[in-house]
Amino acid sequence: MERLTGLVRRCVEDYDMIQEGDRIAVGLSGGKDSLALLCALSSLKRYYPKRFELYGVTIGLGFEGMDFTAVADLCGRLDVPYCYVETDIKSVVFDLRQEKNPCSLCVRMRKGAFNDKLKELGVSKAALGHHMDDAVDTFFMSLIYEGRISCFEPVTYMDRSGITQIRPMLYAEESYIKRVASKYKLPVVDSPCPMNGNSKREYVKRFLSDLRRERPDLRVKTFRAMQRLPLPGWKKLELDGLDSGFLLDNNTEK
Predict the structure, then answer these.
(1) Cβ distance 132 to 174 under 8 Å?
(2) Beta strands 155-158 and 163-166: pairing type?
(3) Does a structural domain hold residue 251?
(4) Phi, psi of 163 (to 5 degrees)
(5) Which pLDDT tens digit goes with each residue over 96-148?
(6) Residues contacting 98, CB < 8 A, separation 6+
(7) Residue 239 within a domain
(8) Does pLDDT of 254 surpass 70?
(9) From CA 8, how far away is CA 24, in angstroms rounded?
(10) Longest C-alpha distance within the chain, in Å?
(11) Rounded mean pLDDT, 29-47
């Protein structure tokens, strides 16, 4: 966890993600990434020179069998206020509208409910659990499906909601986050969504996984290229010596 917190701190400082007095909410989907981010930010909060408040917020999608009691307990142990918001997103997307491509509508509805709750709490920043693999996958999705070089930004201000999105785990690889989640027995909540494993993102993840069998450093080199460009919203950072700092698993798939 100390190593993960160190990666988060470096990313936070490189992109000036946290200011004095910020109120930051982590979107807790129940997945390993958001739970690991919550723990890392909670650890960072204890010693970071800029004081900030931390909240945990879960948007319930309406799927049966998803129990977030253990997530609430984790927030309690970390002394992080926790809010659970139940919605009928599943019913609207799958039952009422029967969307052929449900992910887009689900994301919009989930984001709307999340932003509404943040406004109610007086929170102006949302911390999202995207990691290095997510950034690389998004880069290739844009290239393959849209024919453009693009990716989400490390820091994004949303004009309509007034919420700033930050992604403090961009320097951590997914394989490392998996080991952190396993070691600390984080209370992952499995999603029964029928789109799990069937989305365009999952196709790209499998495609890149096949390529990495021959080129294990593909993910790392792509991420470094994204910084060298740099992409809109990204900084052209000094890359020398980063391999020992945050490229923890560039030759490992676990």
Answers:
(1) yes
(2) antiparallel
(3) no
(4) -100, 140
(5) 777 777 777 888 888 999 999 999 999 999 999 999 999 999 999 999 999 99
(6) none
(7) yes
(8) no
(9) 14
(10) 53
(11) 95
**CB under 8 Å, gap of 24 or more: what pairs does 243-247 form?**
245/7, 245/10, 245/171, 246/7, 246/10, 246/171, 246/172, 247/173, 247/220
What residues contact residue 236 under an 8 Å CB cut-off, 6+ apart? 227, 228, 229, 230
Residue 71 lies in a domain: yes
The predicted pLDDT at position 198 comes to 65
Give CA–CA dist 43/61, Å, rounded: 29
Q: Domain tally for the chain?
A: 1
pLDDT band per the 50, 70, 90 thresholds, residue 35: very high
Residue 93, domain CATH: 3.40.50.620
Give the other-Cβ count within 10 Å of 58's Cβ: 24
Query: The whole model's pTM is what?
Result: 0.88
Strand partners, 126: 25, 165
Is 55 part of a structural domain of the chain? yes
In whole angstroms, what is the distance from residue 26 CA to residue 232 CA?
A: 24
**Bridge-partner residues for 169, per DSSP?**
131
Residue pLDDT, tens place only, 195-229: 676 678 888 989 998 998 999 888 888 998 888 88
Q: Which amino acid is at 117?
A: K
H/E stretch holding 174 reads helix 174-183
CB 172 within 8 A of CB 131: yes
Stretch 47-76: mean pLDDT: 92
Structural domain that includes position 184:
2-244
